[in-house]
Design goal:
The complex is a heterodimer of chains A (141) and B (186). With 141 residues, chain A is α+β, with helices and mostly antiparallel strands. Chain A has helices at residues 30-50, 91-106, 121-140; strands at residues 4-10, 16-21, 61-63, 68-73, 79-84. With 186 residues, chain B is α+β, with helices and mostly antiparallel strands. The chains are: A alpha+beta (141), B alpha+beta (186).
Chain lengths: 141, 186
């Protein structure tokens, strides 16, 4: 079944603030995930400069043999990207939903420091629920 | 996938959970009173309210963007309209009007006829220099800073000081887009 492998959230300076595995494929340790996030941040920025079309907002979709990578960047510079099975549908809507969960459970937590790694249990729980719901909905389609 | 259309302020206001207006007014009043007791100086309280507003604004902007689906504004005029019609409506339940544009289009006034923060409030003589709603100027400044706009927000008219409406002047000082520092290391 098409499913999400992992979710990354990068702050506006390119630092990884959240990483979660939802599938068993491609699990990474902390250092690798940090490195990958900075790589993605740089590639995303470079793609905006490389674009032949003016006012490009960066890479939204990367398709490879064994995975798809969907990326959403908010107007504040925070990037949300998921690595999922090739051909998974409705990832943009799911990313927007994750953005809303971020604005609720992370930003409204007064003890969360901006741009720092996210350590909010409620956020983890609500994300897991959203991923679960998406899987169930997918089975139903 | 076609881009999602931006939602109107009314639609979002109707869809979010709302709180009792009096509780909101009372809570804000308690904050201002406590600040006056702790800091004693009216200027200090103004500064603190602005700082608190700034801290709220930097977080509020993401919620605003997530719920309203607005796309990047073309110019500062569009930004001001969006703040007045969607932003204020979404968070305070009231709309503001945008007036007094200068020649370059970088300074305007946001006019509020109705302001839930000041229901039942009267300023005593001992607090004459106080900008009671200064948290609002901080919120706008903080929110715009997170989308690469450095602004200065000042109060022109204040109903608690005898004027007929609340008027904030928003001045765009600088647009600071996030640029990839290609040549920084050399």
């Amino acid at each position: 079944m098409a499913a999400i492998y992992s979710l990354y959230i990068i702050n506006k300076s390119g630092g990884l603030i959240f990483y979660k595995d939802y599938g068993s494929a491609g699990r990474m340790d902390t250092n690798d995930s940090l490195r990958l996030a900075s790589l993605w941040h740089s590639m995303h920025a470079i793609s905006q400069q490389l674009s032949p079309v003016p006012s490009c907002s960066g890479i939204e979709l990367l398709q490879a043999d064994t995975f798809d990578l969907h990326c959403f960047q908010s107007l504040t510079g925070t990037k949300f990207f998921v690595v999922c099975e090739p051909g998974t549908l409705h990832m943009e809507a799911l990313l927007k939903h994750f953005y809303e969960l971020y604005t609720d459970f992370v930003l409204k937590n007064p003890f969360y420091e901006m741009e720092m790694p996210i350590r909010c249990e409620l956020f983890d729980i609500s994300l897991a629920l959203a991923v679960q719901k998406d899987r169930v909905a997918l089975l139903g389609r | 996938m076609p881009p999602v259309a931006p939602r109107s302020g009314d639609a979002i206001f109707a869809s979010v959970e709302r709180v009792n207006a009096e509780l909101f007014t009372l809570t804000y009043g308690a904050i201002v009173r406590q600040l006056l007791t702790d800091l004693e100086e009216v200027e200090e309280v103004n500064k603190q309210l602005d700082q608190m507003g700034y801290n709220i604004g930097i977080r509020l902007i993401d919620e605003f963007l997530a719920k309203s689906n607005v796309s990047r504004c073309v110019d500062f005029k569009e930004t001001a309209e969006v703040i007045a019609k969607v932003g204020f409506k979404m968070f305070l339940g009231v709309t503001a009007t945008v007036t007094n544009w200068d020649a370059e289009g970088t300074t305007c006034s946001l006019v509020l006829e109705d302001n839930p923060l000041v229901d039942f409030v009267e300023l005593p003589d001992t607090c004459q220099g106080l900008y009671y709603c200064n948290v609002l100027s901080g919120v706008i400044r903080g929110a715009l800073e997170m989308v690469s706009m450095k602004t200065e927000v000042t109060w022109i008219r204040d109903m608690l000081r005898g004027d007929d409406a609340f008027e904030m002047q928003v001045k765009l000082v600088k647009q600071v887009p996030e640029e990839y520092p290609y040549k920084d290391d050399e």
